[in-house]
Amino acid sequence: MTADAVGRAARVELRGVRKEYANGVVAVHETDLTVEAGELVVLVGPSGCGKSTTLRMVAGLESISDGELSIGGRVVNDVPPADRDIAMVFQSYALYPHMTARENMAFALRLRKRPHVEVVERVNAAAATLGITELLERTPKQLSGGQRQRVAIGRAIVREPSVFLFDEPLSNLDAALRGEMRRELASLHRRLAATMLYVTHDQVEAMTLGDRIVVMHAGRIVQVGPPTDVYLHPRDTFVASFLGSPPMNLLAGTLERAGDQLGVRLTGAPGAVIPLPRTLATVAEGAGVTSVILGLRPEDGAAVVVDDGAAPPAGSLTGVVELVEPLGHQQLLHLRIGTLAVTVQGAARERPPLGAKVALRADANNLHLFDAGTGKAIGH
Length: 380
What we know:
alpha+beta, disordered N terminus
């Protein structure tokens, strides 16, 4: 991509954008989102949340029912896809099977009657950037899945658009290749300094690729921010449970005061009370709620085997090991505390036997608290 092309990276703005189909189904509710020029923003969420529909409205492949969409300061609601100065990379690669990789990458430029020398230069430059120069004379059937996706990305690069759109481009690749392609896409974004809007249901892709992530649920944006901020400070129980593998433990309970200590008495685990740190306790009291959901990420809990007859450490919860999942460098311990299921991470070399009695201690500084009625974070 040339220096001039890099300078053309455009700002994308959605203002009250809405998508309703003829049968009355609303796929995307009123959505406000700004993607700054040169930013890589990832739309992430479960199937049916509206992320791909939002991307397709930006691309012009879906009409906008209401609201305003602008690219580079120009309102494009009624502008055809070919005139929006965007390039889209699809999950299915969408390569012409009878054309070579070179011909696939050059096709859009030839349609626009670009000079032959310019077409050759752009294709060669994009191929060098993606490391596929030696593959240019092969047809798609002679390429692996990862190589086909590189060609599809190269086809987008040669157009030198103001905005790149990616619709789950790595979904058809195996796990190892997805990891490799994630790194290549992140590197590509840094080199091109291009505006990119990326859709995925894969939270690992979202967390590792995005300058910001946009978490969507039921056609609405529920949280926007840098990946680490969203992970550490989820705005509601949906975000808390969606981001993270394994997901955050969400435990219902009630606020209870014992002397000057405020804690959460867990429902379904008789006698189980988790004390809250002072700052979170103050916020919880100010929120004026009684029924809460306590959030604990697996990495913020520690389980220690307790000898039969021995008292568990003070401030811990007692449970039993129901399942151990070895993951190589670590393991997941699935515990049963009363009727509650709790997952924590542990070191791989410390594998407790099934049925072992364990004491669970929670890192008080990393507890999360949500209003049980609304699901909204308390103190966010």
